Every structure is written in structure tokens, then in C-alpha cells.
């Protein structure tokens, strides 16, 4: 092959994974061995059952369709696009092809010899991970692929360089004091305390004549060990110092230092020249320094929220939480941890907002303010899945009161709710378009009315009732008397018991959005409206999983687990024969949550509608891999709830 053609092949391949993971020299060697093949429209590259050839393919131009022959029917599995890798059985297993590949239009492909690539597969972990994660077109998808996919996405990208968030990566910039107050052993407590006061510091390191650290005295020690006990200030420092000291070198990694302080419950960590107590002191690290270094860490943000009653300050803290979320998403931090942190921040804002409102209005409602109530988060926030500040779904349930009090009590509850919603809007959340919020009188009701709502929805499951069920059945208590929320849960299960028809309706409703398995070359996109030509990740991928998880936990009478991927984890315990599939569904949902949040932050939107052109090859393949468990679960639901025999 001429150098001109080799260079063209090389320039093309380096745009697409897994070739993007090769260095220039290796890619050049691969490009020299490539065979350029032309296939006319309708021609087969290989057929199902054929022995694997000695090369795999990359589509250069045209369209190649991968199909499976089953029950005398041909089912299209995937349609390959420019840069797609396919026919990898020759590389991975040398087994007969399980799919057929046919040119749908005149096509040009690059055939990569297996011999030249096998060594690369062994030596390059990123290349082998690409194939292990099921990213090649038409590759056999096994259930372990989504775990590999999550790992792959992390491996295939650079870490964020936001130093203020590098708490677990060892890359954080760390500020500490190198001007350390030391006190020679044998001095008395009064001298040590005077030195601390003059220097304006809260600790002093007790050292020997070589400046080797022996112990430490803090303000707390003087308060608890000297003043509280009435000790003389003439007492030698060694009698009250904390010993032995834990030491490190200042060059130790941030995560090592941070975890050492957590593990040993330290407020101060001493630096020495060689990191041991047998060398001179060079610095001291305090927990305050750690907080400053963390910048936007959860501890700092939560502490800031807990120490302010100013709504505008709360809004600033919630804005800072977006930086934290961005870092977590970019660096593949576990989604359950991310969801818990963001939900905790959101919950604290709601709790503070309610307390602010009560402090403002309780004096005007002396009797109504004594009525027990519970503020509920619904929908995605109720499931602890609202990473972005999308629309609010919430409600209030309060204890039943005599009819004569009802009007006054509801007025009070609505007044509180109005202030809370206003605070949440100031903090950047969006109002619910359907007005499913606690300041709507319909959703601010006594317990008896809520029980009536749930009974009606369960007994008469029309389309509107099913819509309400998908939102209100995921309620979660955020503030107030949890017992009211528990009573609602108990009532739901009492009503469902013996009424399997409700679950049939709920299951049928969950299957309205089948897994979008046919979008491979082009997305199934919205055809009209403002989101035309965009992919609806919520409707077409996330909702089917949330609906299935909800129905299954209801059928198993599982209480207290709202989060979708945690529901799937619990269901995997309850249904061991479907364990792998259910765990895979949970992983799929985590991936979808992350993709939606990343898109939302990229486009400054709710992330629901994804523009296909912004997704790279790996992202598209990863998204495709999440559809497989949706399809399998929907088939199980159809059989379990007898939906083929269920009346429309």
C-alpha cells in the first residue's frame, strides 16, 4: 500500500475508538496492514454461521447492516455507521459469525488483520477494555458488559483538574502552616498558653531539644484538662499533652493525609522531615485546612447550609453544589454516593426553608401550627434521583383535625408551602408544569384525604390515576412527622392486597414505552415540536426502568426503598433466578442518570432531550447497551402480569 493511502487510513482510524488509544507508531503499523475492501449494495461481507475470517472490519463509507436469522425471519440487530467496528469474533473468539453483515448501499470498509492486532489487545489495557465492554457493533452483549462499560468510560477520559474537589484523587492543592508554634518539654502550661495567645493559634507542639515532636496541646486540652480540673498553670506541659503524635511528611498525598485524620479522629496532623516522630517538625495540618482545601466538598456545603438562615446565601451554596456535581459526574464517582449527597443538600434546603417559614408564620397561627404534618418529596426527588434542579414535585400530609379547624389548618399549611416553594425557586429549582406542588390545595391535605386519593387510584386505575401513581407512589418524607408518611405507605399496601388488577394496569402502562432497540444508526428522535430530532432519554430509557422497579417492589411489598437502582438491588435478592438481569437493570439506570445529568449541565437544561450529534461513538454504544435489560424486563413483565390476555 502506498504511503499516501497508509496516511489516509491512519488519519481516518485515529478518529475512532479503539484506534484512538494507540500511539502514533503502533497506529502506523496497523494502517500499513489494512486491506481496503469494496462491497456493492446487497452484497454480504459475511453470513451467520460462516467461519470467522482473519480480520475484523471498520466501516469507512456507506451502510452495513448486521442481522440475525431466527425462526425463518431476519431481524436487524444493528446498522453500522462510519467508524463503527464490527465482525470482531475473528479477533475475540474465532467462532462462527452469529450475525450476517450486508451492505445496504455501496460501501467501503477497512479490514484489520487479526494477527497485527492480537498483540495490541494483550498489551493495551484500554483497547482490551473497549472490546470487553461490548462497544464493538454487533458484539455479543453479556450482562457483565455494563460494569465493564462504567469502568471503560472512566478509563477513556481525563480526570477533572478542579483542585478544590480532588479529595479522593490525591491531586488537591493543600494549604497548611509551616510556621509551627513549638514548646520545649519541661515548660509549664501557663507558658505554653501564653505563647498560644500571643501567636493567635489553637495548638502547640511539645518537642524535645532536637525539635522532635513528643505531643500536642490544644485549646480544648487547656479547657478540659486544666481549667475544668483546677490544675495549676505551673503543671508541666507533658502531663496534659496528647501523645503519641501521628506524623506524616508534607509530600504525602492529600487522600492519604485526609484519610489518616478521619481514621484517627485527628483535628491536627504533624509534618516532620521524614514523616516520623524521630525527625524535626516542619508543619502542621488542621481540620480547618482540610475544609479550605476541599472547597466545594459535601462537608463544606452542608456546613454552610446548616449555618445560614439567609435564603440568598442558601441559593449561592446550591449553585456551588453544581460544581461538586460536575466533578462527580466527570470522574465517575459512584452514582449512589452522588445521588445521596445531592439529595442530602436538597433536603437540607427544604428543611431550612420550612423552619424559616414556621418562624415567620407560627405566631399568626397559634393553634394550626401545633398540628402534626409531613413534607413529602415526590417523583425523582422522592426517589433521590434529582441531580439537576428540574421541576419540583412535592406535597404535604397533615393529621386529621375536626372539620371546624380544617380551613384554618389548610390555610396555615399552604402558607408554609408557599414560602418553601418560593425558597426552592430562588435556589434554582423549576416549578412543576402540572402544579403537583405542596402549595396547590389539592396536594396539601389531611391523612384521610390522602388515603382516599390512593384508594381511588388503586380501585379505578384510569390513565389519570396511573399518572398520579407513578408520581405519588414514590413519596419520601423530608421534614416533619414520618409516622404520617408510614401510615400512607401501610394504606397503599392494604389497598393493593388482593387487587392484582391494579398492578396489571400499572404494568401495562409501564410497557407503553418499549426499549428503543432500533435506533442504532439513527436515534429514535422526536418528530415534531421544539425537541424535534432530539432523543428523549427520560421517556424512552429511564421511565421504563423506574416504572418496572416500582411495580416489582409493590408486588413484593417492599417498604422504604424508593431509589430505582437500589430497588433493583433489593429485587435481585428477592428474585435470585433473575439476579443478573435485575442488577444489570440497576447499572443501566445509573448510566442513564449520569448521561442525563451530563447533558443537562452541558446544555444548561433538564438534560431530558439529547442531541445525537453531541454523543461520541462510545457514548452511543454505552447508551445502546443500557437498552438490553429494559427489553428483557419488559418481556418478563408481559408474561408475569399476563398482559397479552389483559383487556385494553
UniProtKB/TrEMBL annotation:
Keywords from the named record? CBS domain
Q: Which residues form the CBS domain?
A: 176-234, 241-300
Read off the SUPFAM superfamilies from this record: cAMP-binding domain-like, CBS-domain pair, Nucleotidyltransferase
Pfam family of this protein, just one?
Answer: CBS
Highest lineage ranks of the organism?
A: Bacteria, Pseudomonadati, Bacteroidota, Cytophagia, Cytophagales
Q: How is this protein named in the record?
A: DUF294 nucleotidyltransferase-like domain-containing protein
Boundaries of each Cyclic nucleotide-binding domain copy?
18-121
Q: Does the keyword Transferase apply?
A: no
Q: Which domain of life is it from?
A: Bacteria
